Amino acid sequence: MTKISINTKLKAVEEYANGNDSKEFIRKKYGIAEPDFQICVGIYARFGKKTLLNPPKVNGDFRLNLVKWKQENLGGL
Asked: What is the pTM of this model?
């Protein structure tokens, strides 16, 4: 599996966000796997470019907060 740079993913997400083409067309154009592209689009839509470029560090506190959020919001992964 080829590793796609975050800059390429960002370019693809911004291209999709600007309405240039369909999600399927853009992800194939850049060679990004469907689940990866879905995640990137979701992060970009919810948190913006900054979070996509600098994701939070996963540590014990992050995991604990995630579990608390899931319980409070009936969320799942």
From this structure: 0.71
Q: Taking 70 as the threshold, does the pLDDT of residue 76 lie above it?
A: no
Alpha-carbon dihedral of residues 33, 35, 39, 41, nearest 10 degrees?
Answer: 60
CA 65 to chain centre: 19
User: Burial, 12: exposed, middle or buried (Cβ in 10 Å; 0-12, 13-18, 19+)?
Assistant: buried
Residues 22-52 as b or e (16 or more Cβ within 10 Å = b): eeeebbeebebeeeebeebbebbeeeeeeeb
pLDDT tens per residue, range 9-35: 999 999 999 998 999 999 999 999 999
Measured CA to CA, the distance from residue 48 to residue 14 in angstroms comes to 10
Sign of the alpha-carbon dihedral angle for 19, 20, 21, 24: negative
